[in-house]
């Protein structure tokens, strides 16, 4: 276990900054991992709503796939639909609760597909849409790969996945269904994503966690070199109008800031100071029309509380206009995921 839990988070308490500002959190997970060594093995609707109701004005959220609650029977290629069915039920319950207590709604769902099926992936895409006809918005097939096997996510990912011909045959099916692609990879894979974005200009690609700048393993002593490399390719990606970037994810231990190892969690001021160069570069290159802040909870919860992470984002955006803040915290996510 890398995180320290709720008692540790409670050591750093803050009041929410600008608590009335509407927020759509476009990136969180839901799971119940009894056999997991994660700091938060259970993160379901009750846990999510405790976080979203902790001070900030969270109106809507978007669930992002995490390999949770797949079907345990039936055709192998359709088993990921179980996750969409599981989250669809939670989303309906969140709507019911919203009507009585004004809590956040799980308004969008992003599921998993194995694009290396090629054209056969259509059956899975259609099954996801049938399971959640009003909320299903896109697919994430994780591409994060590094020579360090400890950085792999769940199932091993082959190098060069985004360049694979079979992957691209499956990926090409997204546009016909109006679905977007969530890109989760590491900074040294950004050139592959650039090639993908240029090859499929009609498909919206949402870059997760500002492109995954690594700060552990071989990269632990290369912070400036990683930042320079990352900065160059973020600028190149920004030239692709079909790419949108999520601002967050730096609380993951793989980024190397080690907030999760401290005796007490960092303050929002400390978080903002570290994250500011990364986030401001994304804003400078992509503009406030193609960026959105994200919590990445409960993954980033290993480093700070929900109140603290959104306070950090608000500190970074302090000098922006009201319209720019509205876009970054709410409107861009609602538009990108078609939540209206």
CATH topology: TIM Barrel
* Percentage of residues in strands: 5-15%
CATH superfamily: Metal-dependent hydrolases
> Biggest β-sheet, characterized?
8 strands, parallel
Rounded average pLDDT: 96
- Ranges where pLDDT stays below 50 over 5 or more residues in a row are none
Brief summary of the model shown:
The protein has 340 residues and is an alpha/beta fold. The chain contains eleven helices and ten strands.
Overview features:
alpha/beta; 14% strand; 340 residues; 11 helices; eight-stranded parallel sheet; single chain; two-stranded antiparallel ribbon; 37% helix; TIM Barrel
Describe this structure as you would to a colleague.
The mean pLDDT is 96. With 340 residues, the protein is an alpha/beta fold. Helix 4 links the parallel strand 5 (105-111) and strand 6. The radius of gyration is 19 Å and the shape is globular. The protein has 11 helices and 10 strands. An 8-stranded parallel beta sheet has the order 1-4-5-6-7-8-9-10. A two-stranded antiparallel ribbon has the order 2-3. The relative contact order is 0.15. The protein has a single domain (6-11, 22-336), classed as Alpha-Beta Barrel (TIM Barrel).
Helices and strands, with pairings:
Elements: H1 6-9, E1 22-28, E2 31-32, E3 42-43, H2 45-52, E4 57-64, H3 81-101, E5 105-111, H4 121-131, E6 136-140, H5 165-171, H6 174-177, E7 180-183, H7 190-199, E8 205-207, H8 223-237, E9 243-247, H9 268-286, E10 291-293, H10 306-316, H11 322-336
Parallel strand pairs: 1-4, 4-5, 5-6, 6-7, 7-8, 8-9, 9-10
Antiparallel strand pairs: 2-3
Helix pairs in contact: 3-4, 7-8, 8-9, 9-10
């Amino acid at each position: 276990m890398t995180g320290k839990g709720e008692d540790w988070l409670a050591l750093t308490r803050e009041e929410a900054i600008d608590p009335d500002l509407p927020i759509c959190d476009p990136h969180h997970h839901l799971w119940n991992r009894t056999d997991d060594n994660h700091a938060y093995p259970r993160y379901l609707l009750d846990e999510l709503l405790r976080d979203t109701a902790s001070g900030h004005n969270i109106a809507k959220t978007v669930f992002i796939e995490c390999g949770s609650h797949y079907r345990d029977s039936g055709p192998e290629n359709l088993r990921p639909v179980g996750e969409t069915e599981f989250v669809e039920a939670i989303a309906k319950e969140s709507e019911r609760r919203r009507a009585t207590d004004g809590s956040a709604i799980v308004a969008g769902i992003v599921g998993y597909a194995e694009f290396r099926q090629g054209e056969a992936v259509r059956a899975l895409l259609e099954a996801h849409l049938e399971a959640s006809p009003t909320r299903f918005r896109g697919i994430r097939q994780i591409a994060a790969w590094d020579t360090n096997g400890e950085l792999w996510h769940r199932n091993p990912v082959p190098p060069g996945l985004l360049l694979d011909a079979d992957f691209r045959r499956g990926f090409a099916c997204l546009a016909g269904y109006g679905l977007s692609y969530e890109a989760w990879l590491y900074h040294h894979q950004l050139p592959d994503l650039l090639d993908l974005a240029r090859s499929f200009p009609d498909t919206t690609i949402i870059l997760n966690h500002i492109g995954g700048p690594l700060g552990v393993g071989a990269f632990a002593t290369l912070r400036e070199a990683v930042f320079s490399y990352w900065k160059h390719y973020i600028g190149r990606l920004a030239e692709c109008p079909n790419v949108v970037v999520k601002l967050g994810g730096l609380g993951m231990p793989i980024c190397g800031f080690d907030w999760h190892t401290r005796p007490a969690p960092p303050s929002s001021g400390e978080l903002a100071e570290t994250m500011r160069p990364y986030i401001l570069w994304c804003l400078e290159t992509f503009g406030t029309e193609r960026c959105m802040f994200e919590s990445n909870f409960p993954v980033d919860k290993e480093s700070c509380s929900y109140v603290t992470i959104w306070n950090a984002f608000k500190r970074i955006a302090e000098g922006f206009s009201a319209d720019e803040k509205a876009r970054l915290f709410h409107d861009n996510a609602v538009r990108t995921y078609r939540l209206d």
